[in-house]
Amino acid sequence: MSNSKLSDAFQSSTAGIEHVTVPMSLPYDRLVNAFEAELGHLDPAVTKALVERRASWGEVEKEIERIGGVHGLMVIASANQGVMTSLSGKMKRCLLYLIGNPVIADKIIAIDVRASFYVPFRVAIFDRGNDGTVISYDRPSSFLAVLGRPELNEFRQPARSEDRRADRGAAKEGMKPLPSTARLVLRAANSALGSAFGPRR
User: Fold this and answer.
1) Distance CA 183, CA 174 (A)
2) b/e map of 159-188 (b: 16 or more CB within 10 Å)?
3) 77: part of which helix (H) or strand (E)?
4) CB under 8 Å to 179, separation ≥6 — which residues?
5) H or E segment at 81?
6) Residue 86 and residue 161: Cα distance in Å, rounded?
7) Across the strands, what pairs with 79?
8) Which domain CATH number covers 159?
9) What's the gap between Cα 7 and its chain centre?
10) Distance between CA atoms of 68 and 51, rounded to whole angstroms?
11) Per residue of the chain (201 residues), what is the pLDDT tens digit?
12) Is residue 187 part of a domain?
């Protein structure tokens, strides 16, 4: 493709993505441990085994349900950015997580493959020194709106009231131990991806 044709093919769009920051009182290490304890963890070896034996989709669903646990969510990948950047001479403590559920992602990406940019979604935990620790994430009900696909509304509409409840709860619970606040953050994310993502009874 020529440079002119490539330039003509570029597309851009603008949409508001709401960012949420939840201050916490736990020390960084305890915050990380408590948050990770709330989630499942997708082992790359499990993914590799399922792909190599061409597992049925039913088998995949069963395995993902097992890994996802009570929230139906799992850490798909994480990046400890603080380890390398601290070599500059100033200690930095920050972790970035990709969190999602491949079964729910399949439903979203089947509607619009561009959604693969947004799911799995990101959650950051970082230490601000004397200002305390933070859990930070983009409001899940907002990022799918960027695609402008009405078919994705079923994954967005239930999230809005849940987002508000999560914000109120986080403000009330933010200085208490993590697990209750972590669940609020996860529920806000869950609801954006449909009722099937909600905490299981």
Assistant:
1) 12
2) beebbeebbebbeebbeeebeebbbbbbbb
3) strand 74-80
4) 34, 37, 38
5) helix 81-85
6) 40
7) 96
8) 3.30.310.70
9) 32
10) 18
11) 555 555 566 777 676 778 888 888 788 998 888 888 888 999 999 999 999 999 999 999 999 999 988 888 899 999 999 999 999 999 999 999 999 899 989 998 999 998 898 888 899 999 999 999 988 888 766 777 778 888 887 765 545 544 454 455 445 444 444 444 455 555 544 443 333 333 333
12) yes
**Is 6 inside a domain boundary?**
no
* Total number of domains in the chain: 1
What is the domain range of residue 55? 18-197
* CA distance linking residue 137 with residue 3, whole number of Å: 37
72 in a structural domain: yes
Residue 101 identity (one-letter amino acid):
N
* Domain assignment present for 102: yes
Q: Look at residues 64, 93, 62, 59 and name the one whose alpha carbon lies nearest to residue 76.
A: 64
Diameter over CA atoms, the chain: 58
